[in-house]
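Q: 13022_t:CDS:1, please. Structure only.
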Amino acid sequence: MKKSDIIVKNGKLISDVLIGLDKEIQVAGDELGEFRHQAENFLWSLANEIKSITEEVEKVKQSEENWVNKFIGSNSQSTSNILASFIRERLKAIEKQIPGLQEQLKQVINSISKVQHGASNAHAYLIDGEREAEQALKNHWSGEVIDYYLRKRAESELKQVQYIIKLLREIAPSLMNFEEFLKEYRRKIQDVDKEVRYVRSFTKIATAEDIKYLKKTIDDLEKQHEKFSSAEKQLGYKPIDSYYFDDIINSRNRDCTEFRAMIEKPNKAYLKKIRIWSSDIVNALAFFYSDDTSAIYGTPGDGDSYDFDWHKGEKIKHIFKRVGSVLYAIQFHTDQGRISDWRGGEKGDSYRVLNEYASAIGIHGSFSRQICSIGIITR
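A: Structure for 13022_t:CDS:1:
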């Protein structure tokens, strides 16, 4: 879209703002992962410290009941002082972890806010881009511009823009809801912090009534954390580029058609050149023969072209490819040691289609608006 000849005024702005939004989403994901890790460690530590306090209180209680039967005086007081000191130290260990957790949560909330802001900016630019694409189509249908290629480009870019607008509108409520969830999480942490400080301030042993509120705030925090995974799923995080390339293209691939391109034709005409059109995917392939015939599969207008000359009698050694819902990238290796450029994008899983034990006589695959799949035909 950055080089669009349809959305001229806003194409670059839309491209830049979507790239920026993608980065903000990645940062938010990283910050969120770090917070979850810290929160789980904190809750584990919190449970252990409270367990230690509870066990120590029980031990002292049993001990004091025995001492009362034998002694009256300082021993009981000394034991109480030791217990009070023990409780304060354990609570101090909890208290020291809270600022770091709060700071990480603050970073998560800030990053989510940046994603919301970026999505809002992207939406505004996309609305302007949508108007440009719609105007280009109006000009075509009114007869002011008669260009089939431009019309198809305008239809394609309008569809892309409208789809991304729909996505941004759908994720906006999820982002707001998740931000509210995180803010509630922050309030639960603040409640625990407040109660820990309160109990630590005692010069005497905290009673069951005193600790009751501390235990309640801890229980509330644990319940909030239990909702974390479901809240994250509701957020429905999926990168913008993944929506665009996987979801849109999957729908286009329902009509993929098989093709076969031979290295040598029955009339002895041989392959002279392979032309690859690519963008973030492999958009089209063309095979040119010595008899001046050619075969094209896919939509050439959707990508930049690259030519790889083919020598008479040359065979395919193997093909490297990156695939997912479509063919994202491709590279040819021949038995003469020649290698084509990598053409396409960075997405997909990498594979090597190997021709090791048989003679390669051609290429087979499938195509729709773009190349869906590719392989080697062997004798």
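A: Brief note, in case it's useful. The chain has two domains: 11-237, 255-378.
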